[in-house]
Amino acid sequence: MPRFVILTHDWPHLHWDFMLEQKNSLKTWRLDSEPILNYWITAKPLPDHRLQYLNYEGPVPQNRGVVTRFMEGDYTTSQVFPRETWLLLTGTFGKWETRIIEECNAVRVLFSQHV
User: Fold this and answer.
1) How far apart are the C-alpha atoms of 74 and 22, rounded to whole Å?
2) What is the domain extent for residue 32?
3) I need a surface site. Which of 18, 47, 93, 106 has the fewest CB within 10 A?
4) What is the DSSP letter of 32?
5) Of 38, 14, 44, 19, which Cα lies nearest the Cα of 107?
6) Is the pTM of this model over 0.85?
7) Where are the beta strands (DSSP E) in the chain?
8) CB 52: neighbour CB atoms within 10 A?
9) Percent of the chain at pLDDT exceeding 90
10) What is the C-alpha to C-alpha distance for residues 24 and 33, in angstroms, rounded to an integer?
11) Mean pLDDT (the chain, rounded)
12) Overall number of domains in the chain
């Protein structure tokens, strides 16, 4: 089962990196606020990251701050629509349903408790 991680990253400003394992890399978004339930979070797509970040905490090369693990676990893709993906994250805080919506100039992410 593919894995995910959400890292707290303090550079260039405090944000959270949401990463999904996809083959040989991590599809990554920068979340503008801490992942909390039932709140839409603005996200920015970032270049794919190396798989090592699934297990890494510490300084980021080239003086780009420090990352610490916020949440980690496995995920499954439950539904895919044009410009919208639904995931089920099973991790540190239990099971979270997650929606990723790609809009014209932005991406929004919603985390909610799985029932």
Assistant:
1) 12
2) 3-113
3) 47
4) S
5) 44
6) yes
7) 3-9, 15-22, 25-31, 40-49, 58-59, 66-81, 84-91, 94-102, 107-113
8) 8
9) 94
10) 27
11) 95
12) 1
